[in-house]
Amino acid sequence: MAEERMLITGGQRLEGAVRVSGGKNTAVAIIPAAILSQTPCVIENLPSIEDVHVSVETLQHLGAKVLWDPREGIMQVDASTINRTDVPLELCRRMRASSYYIGALLARFGEASVPLPGGCNIGRRPIDQHIKGMRMLGAEVEIVGGTVMARARDGLIGGDVFMDMVTVGGTINVMLAAACAQGITTIYNAAKEPHIVDTANFLNSMGCKVKGAGTDVIRVRGVSHLSSRRPYAVIPDQIETGTLMIAAAATHGDVTISGCIPTHMEALTAKLLEMGARVDERDDAIRVRSMGAHRGVTFKTQVYPGFPTDLQQPMSALLCTATGTSTVVENIFESRFRHLMEMERMGARVRLFEQTAVIEGVPQLHGAAVEASDLRAGAALVIAGLMAQGTTEISNTHYIDRGYEHLEDKLQGLGARISRVTY
Ligand code: EPU
To answer: How far apart are the CA of 335 and the centre of ligand 1, in A?
Structure first.
């Protein structure tokens, strides 16, 4: 089978303006949420990425009518024709957020059969909290041969769900399940990420009553019928915005990222300022300028509004050329440093201790053949390639395509020398 690789000739300063796409992690939640609507539903500002294409295939497999215009980023979903409630393993393997189909199908049809997501290259991805939440709403949930079989013959009934840890997926899945439950569901220790708020806003736009999204207690008053009334546009991608901000600093560039939400970026902005970069915020744009050499920093990944784990990888790539020693603690996933091991081939100096990476900045990285182990590792290697002297060849580009829309075009537009080759 033909394999694609990304080729980057580093050392080009990125300059100019770039527009951010719609959020991946919102898109993969809002598309299954469309199952809850009794009327056709229009979703706008969706990125044309692999995870969205798999979401379309999943809805079509279930029997929904989907009109998807990837150029315009607009999708129309008519869930009234859904005639099955099982998601095949092949689709679950291609998209980690497939667990949201449990909450959505259970809420609308009282049953769902969805294979477990299993582990992945960034660590374990259990969904015990999702399952606990569904059970608290009265669902019978069993795992048979690696597939979650959930059933609520007489519908779900609202209840109190206390999450043992802050989980983005668990919070969204329970919100979806609770949307059509009888009575009120209260989620304690809820996640606060921007995509939780966006999913809640989408549910509210269909007539649900979700309050408190963005805080750690969310209340959902279920309604028996949800129906879409107007098109809903997903929020801009927080992680793509951050990746482009880091790319600007990494190439000592001057880049304005438009169409973003600067308040979602505070944790990263604070670190870039600490490193010596300049960051200017406008209502819906951020300009990042490098003011010379960057200083090394220390940071820990945390739940929102802390430093996001999804930006740890691109940021730690940038730190490989910052002066002095940087320390990065990864608190969310257990193996999210594989990109740094790859970057050792490019001259990075890194010591890894379980959840901590200690990075000694080097003046210059050099191009090498490297392999992406997951989506954000791929983004980190792109940053590394942009900084390095010579040519970097990144394999496993399919991971990058899962979550970044037109990344090469956007970087080329800013002056990067980046292309794809097929072997
Ligand atoms: N966890 C459990 N049990 C659960 C759920 C989570 O133990 O039932 C643990 C996980 O193992 C992890 C932690 O809780 O250690 C947090 O996991 P969370 O549920 O918050 O992550 P997720 O919902 O699986 C989403 C994003 C990830 C992002 C994390 C953390 C989507 C589709 N994915 O995953 O995004 O890293 O939140 O912010 O929203 C990415 O975009 O590259 C990506 C991996």
So the answer is: 13
List, in sequence order, every beta strand (DSSP E) within 26-73. 41-44, 65-69
pLDDT in tens, the chain (423 residues): 678 999 999 999 999 999 999 999 999 999 999 999 999 999 999 999 999 999 999 999 999 999 999 999 999 999 999 999 999 999 998 888 999 999 999 999 999 999 998 667 888 889 999 999 999 999 999 999 999 999 998 999 999 999 999 999 999 999 999 999 999 999 999 999 999 999 999 999 999 999 999 999 999 999 999 999 999 999 999 999 999 999 999 999 999 999 999 999 999 999 999 999 999 999 999 999 998 899 999 999 999 999 999 999 999 999 999 999 999 999 999 889 999 999 999 999 999 999 999 999 999 999 999 999 999 999 999 999 999 999 999 999 999 999 999 999 999 999 999 999 998
State the CATH architecture for 24-233: Alpha-beta prism (3.65)
Distance CA 135, CA 255 (A): 48
**Ligand 1 atom with least separation from CA of 309:** 36
- 92, 120, 208, 260: which one is catalytic? 120
| Cis amide leading into 308 (omega within 30) | no
Range(s) within the chain of domains with CATH label 3.65.10.10: 4-20+237-422, 24-233
Do the Cβ atoms of 61 and 91 come closer than 8 Å?
yes
Q: Report d(CA 102, CA 86) in Å as an integer.
A: 9
- Measured from CB, residues less than 6 Å from any atom of ligand 1 are 25, 28, 97, 124-130, 165, 167-170, 191, 239, 308-310, 332-333, 375-376, 403
Exposure string of 102-123, with b = 16+ CB inside 10 Å and e = fewer, is bbbbbbbbbbbbbbbbeeeebe
Question: Could you tell me the pTM of the whole model?
Answer: 0.97
Which atom number of ligand 1 is nearest to the Cα of residue 403?
Answer: 41
Record: fold of 4-20+237-422:
UDP-n-acetylglucosamine1-carboxyvinyl-transferase; Chain (3.65.10)
